[in-house]
Specification:
Blueprint lengths: L1 H22 L13 E14 L4 E9 L5 E2 L7 E3 L3 E2 L7 E14 L7 E9 L5 E10 L5 E12 L4 H10 L8 H6 L9 E16 L8
């Protein structure tokens, strides 16, 4: 008799738990408040080393996909340095010290920002003209990072263009460097030549990426 009462007591307890569980309010994940992901970074284009140049200027532009929106509409996503000269006898480093920074909000990592770099020199007439291009994605992990960016310049696609460039003293250049370099539009039909490297430093911060399932 005592055993029956004990079993009925356990059954009643389980029944109460079931009723309590069923009475709980269900949480619909789709109704939860949505939080965007945030990417903030800063850094500087430190220096460059080039084959046959000792006076150069550096220019950058931050390219990003449509899903990445600047948090502040007044953010400056492009800039340029002064003309810098390498005077060292032991190294060909040209120091730029060009800072950059930006903060974006997004709901997907597609279209991750890139730093598009253009390098300019002076021609025979003292006018600035492009010497090469390079690009690097913003590091995906938070913290301090250093990157070495390869700089290349486009070559003439025909003998006529090559002859015209030689006599006019004008380097071959992209009409829309951002589209070609960052998005690869028409990149497959161009020939390029490596002309040097640029050192870039990054400090990266991320928010809400782990919450949305990204490391």
């Amino acid at each position: 008799m005592q055993q029956i009462n004990k079993q009925s007591g356990i059954g009643g307890f389980q029944s109460d738990l079931m009723k309590q569980y069923q009475s709980q309010e269900r949480v619909d994940p789709s109704s939860m408040p949505y939080q965007k992901m945030y990417l903030s970074f800063s850094g500087s284009i430190e220096s460059g080393e080039f084959d046959s140049e000792d006076t150069l200027m550096c220019q950058y532009e931050i390219a990003h996909g449509n899903s990445f929106n600047p948090v502040d509409n007044n953010q400056i996503l492009e800039g340029k340095s002064q003309f810098s000269v390498s005077n060292s006898l032991y190294t060909r480093d040209i120091v730029f010290n060009l800072p950059f920074e930006a903060t974006f909000s997004t709901d997907t990592p597609f279209g991750w920002p890139q730093l598009v770099i253009s390098v300019f020199g002076k021609n025979f007439f003292g006018l600035s003209e492009v010497r090469g291009y390079g690009s690097v994605h913003i590091p995906t992990q938070p913290g301090y990072h250093e990157r070495i960016v390869r700089v290349y310049k486009p070559l003439a696609t025909s003998k006529i263009s090559e002859i015209f460039s030689f006599f006019s003293k004008q380097e071959i250049k992209y009409h829309d460097a951002k589209k070609v370099i960052a998005y690869g539009e028409g990149r497959e039909v161009t020939r390029v030549k490596s002309v040097g490297t640029i050192k870039v430093k990054f400090n990266v911060m991320k928010r809400n990426f782990k919450r949305e399932g990204y490391s």
